[in-house]
Amino acid sequence: MSTTFDLAIIGGGPAGYVAAERAGQKGLKVVLIEKGELGGVCLNEGCIPTKTLLYSAKLYDNALGSSKYGVDTKEVTFDFSKMMARKQKVVKKLVGGVGMKMKEHHVEVIKSAAFIKGRSAAGIEITAGDTEILATNLLICTGSEAFLPPIPGLGAPGELILTNREILELKERPDSLVIIGGGVIGLEFASFFNSLGTKVTIIEMLDEILTGMDLEMSTMLRQMYTKKGITFNISAKVTEVKGNEVFFEKNGKKESITGEKILVSVGRKANTAGFGLENIGVELYRGGIKVDEKMRTNVPNVFAAGDVTGFSLLAHTASREGEVVVNNLTGRADRMRYNAIPGVVYTNPEFSGVGYTEESAKAQNIEYRVAKLPMAFAGRFIAENEGGSGLCKVLVGAKYGEVIGVHMLGNPSGEIIYGASMAIEMEMTLKEMEEVVFPHPTVSEIFKETIFSF
Amino acid sequence: MATVVIMPKQGQSVESCIITEWNKKKGDQVTKGEILFAYETDKASFEEEAAVDGILLELFYEAGDEVPVLTNVCVIGAAGESADAYRPGGTAAKSVESSETIVKKETTTAKTEELAIKTVIQEAGTGAISPRAKILADKEGILTAGLSGTGPKGRIIEQDVLAVIACNPKTTPLAKKIAGKEQLQPASTGSGLGGSVTAKDLTTPNPVYSNDFEIKKLSNMRKMIAKAMLNSLQNSAQLTHHLGADARRMLELRRKVKKANDNGYPVNITINDMVCFAVVKALRKFPQANGHFLGDSVKYFNKIHLGVAVDTDRGLMVPAIRNADDLSIQGLSNQMREIAVSCRKGAINPELLSSEAASFTVSNLGNYGVEMFTPVINLPQVGILGVNTIVPRPKDLGDGVYGFVPFIGLSLTYDHQALDGGEATRFLKQIAIEIENLEFEL
Questions:
Q1: Which of A293, A337, A429 sits opposite B174 (nearest CB)?
Q2: Is A448 part of any domain?
Q3: In this structure, which CATH number among 3.20.70.20, 2.40.50.100, 3.40.50.970, 3.40.50.620 belongs to the domain B3-106?
């Protein structure tokens, strides 16, 4: 005898648990199936633990540099294991919080792997442990995992080869770290270990780190970190891994570098296998589940949200996608928009962006005007960033002056960028933006200053 | 004093209209109230009436032209008056604002604007407004001038203002700017934040559900076909008889034509030409099928005007070949070809497209492999012949020998009001006989 639900959700990450919470709030009978811990990669081995560690590193950096601000500290030291322990505490607290929310909204949580058995007129049949589930609707949020490229000699993740998962379980700070892949994950770990004195080398295949972010600022950030001691090998292709040694080709020359640990962060792949997706005939596209703008798959009543779709692999994208599903299920016409999804790289300084970059606008033949100002045009930035530099760049449509892209390098741009997302979502033009009052003195004023420099 | 007729502005978003038909020619005497021309927007069709008596001095545009709204279209005046001063683009050309005497009349096919905002400027209300409505309108920045109220004597009451607010879409600043500049009408909901209308939505039909379907307004032609088809099925007693004709003779003739054609013979007579030729011959013998059923009388034609269904990009057209009974098969073949070409080009004389122009119609779907169908009568005609594909069928060849013989399918739809089954069957049989015994010289 199976239990019936209005909505079954496979995967308790930011797509799944947010959708479960919203659906529960709206009175749907919801089951959330998660084989690991609630919170998914984001809470357990992604966003949250890394930000916790990066904050420790930032405090350490600030303490070391405090004399510039007239504060003398003696013998600044750090305790790696304490940092890791605190990270664990933060994760535990947040995961527990998600569990509480599920209870609060009457979501049944099953801690087990799920398997989709089939689909009939009555609904979708799913097995989760000992429970047989018959669901009217199914939301698949099985997420993604680190992609391991087929590099000769590259072994499975473990002691030496690390992904985002293993590196967060390190007991000791490595003396040297080679990072294959200069994307967001690579850069954040590079930043953390660089602060702690590890010798970090990044090998990136493309011409610049952080593909997809503003090119000019990516270059600025790379130069900042070069000064801080990270070695960057861009346009470099890893050809082989032999034990601790990573071989790569750069400008036609073969080079190699040795690291105590090797972090692989070249991308992620959607989890689409092993849970019976094929039993209901869900169509895939470029490795992810194919969805439309309402997150519907090709199979009626089956939806997908989050990394499993294979694009815009961000926790906040995932949550919003989950919400779109629930809204449409509960009678509110909604659809996913990807034009104003902010991205933040939590390096020190933070690097944030939303909307078109100059590069993507050019690629799509969008006529734009651009204005940029050094972050130092904001009083609070100068007050708090002794000797620091940064940049704010705003892109507007050439004809009507609507905000289409905003990019910032500097702290705390990650907390400011949502304002730009709103401007883009609301299609505000320079005229409306000029009427918005920004608090003074804040770093956010740089946005306003840049608007006025058009 | 000459009176200029301008293209009326039908709705806020309309920038130009297409003149679909002129009912008057240059030099015609027109009287007030007579229809001068018909025109359409992408949404509806309208007719423009003469506001004054006089001579139609000049037409500045022809049927099919797209005319910007408020542009001078024609001039009515006294004989001998010059209309040059009103020619659009000329120095004296000026949109005459004194057009309030020109009465606009929407035809029954016209549909109201999508947004049922009650701001019909032409029929302004009395201007009276309730205090509550006034306060709300002022607060929300709603212009009440021209708003027709639903209160007593057209008084504007609160709910009228609320209705306008409900119809006013939430529109992003960018979408507002573009809509203003490019004269676009925002939809009531869009794909943006909380259903707001974004710039992209302005040019996307039905933005919220664009993924599911798209709503397109019918073209004028589609509307006419729809109306005619429905009318036919609702207002006649039509039914269809199917019969096959031995096509061996026709196929033999076709082979000869092809061969002659290869040797330089100028006319490529097709199977369809031959069937039509046979139909004309049969109609001569069955005049009761060559007519129009008019309710209380039947109009029998002395001549045969053969309607031919032509499939075009814009839709079905059924032009008539006048006096088809005077034509040789070569003449018929040539005319069929010419008329099909001009239909596809859109250059066909509209008079030939009228259902009254033909006395009987042939519709051939044989090319597409259709084996049997029930063509719809082009009222008021009495019948229509559907021509099907040629299929091999067993036939008694005599002496107990059966062989497969090519048969062409014939589907005759007739109006039982005008013809009885026996007559119709005999007529259909006659067509088959004509096909089986077809003869012509090359």
A1: A429
A2: yes
A3: 2.40.50.100
Tell me the CATH architecture of domain B222-436: 2-Layer Sandwich (3.30)
> A337 and B177: CB-CB below 8 Å?
no
Tell me how many degrees the CA angle B165-B166-B169 measures, rounded to the nearest 5.
85
Q: How far apart are CA A370 and CA A376, in angstroms?
A: 18
Tell whether A308 and A286 lie within a shared domain. Answer: yes
Do A135 and A172 have their domain in common?
no
Find chain A residues with C-beta within 8 A of B194's C-beta: none
Domain that holds residue A351: 343-452
Note the pLDDT of residue B114.
38
Question: Is A440 marked active-site?
Answer: yes
Which of B 119-178 lie inside 8 A of A, CB atoms? Answer: 172-175, 177-178
Collect all residues of chain B within an 8 Å Cβ-Cβ radius of residue A402.
Answer: 173-174, 199
Question: Which pLDDT value is given to residue B116?
Answer: 39
Number of domains in chain A: 3
User: Which of A400, A427, A429 has the highest number of chain B CBs within 10 A, making it the mutation to test binding with B?
Assistant: A427
B-chain CB neighbours of A400 within 8 Å are 174, 177-178, 199
**Chain A closest-CA separation from residue B209 CA (Å):** 9
Contacts of B211 in chain A (CB under 8 A): 292-294, 335
Locate all alpha helices (DSSP H) within B141-288, ordered by sequence.
158-167, 173-182, 199-202, 220-234, 248-262, 271-285
The answer, for B412 touching chain A at a CB cutoff of 8 Å, is no
CATH number at residue A185: 3.50.50.60
Report whether pLDDT(B83) > 90: no
A257 to chain B, closest Cα gap in Å: 49
Q: What angle do CA A179, A185, A186 make, to 5 degrees?
A: 20
A155 with A161: CB under 8 angstroms? yes
Kindly list the domain boundaries of chain B, sorted by start residue. 3-106, 131-209, 222-436
The model carries a pTM of 0.62
How far is residue A139 from each of residues A295, A299, A326, measured CA to CA in Å? 9, 11, 9
Q: In this predicted model, what pLDDT tens digit does every residue of B286-296 receive, in sequence order?
A: 999 999 999 89
The residues of chain A scoring below 70 in pLDDT are: none
Flag whether A397 is in a domain.
yes
Residues constituting chain B: 442
The DSSP bridge partners found for residue A139 are A9, A303
Say yes or no for a CB contact (<8 Å) between B174 and A400: yes
Residues A362 and A411 in one domain: yes
Using CA atoms, how far apart are residues A75 and B6, in angstroms rounded to an integer? 89
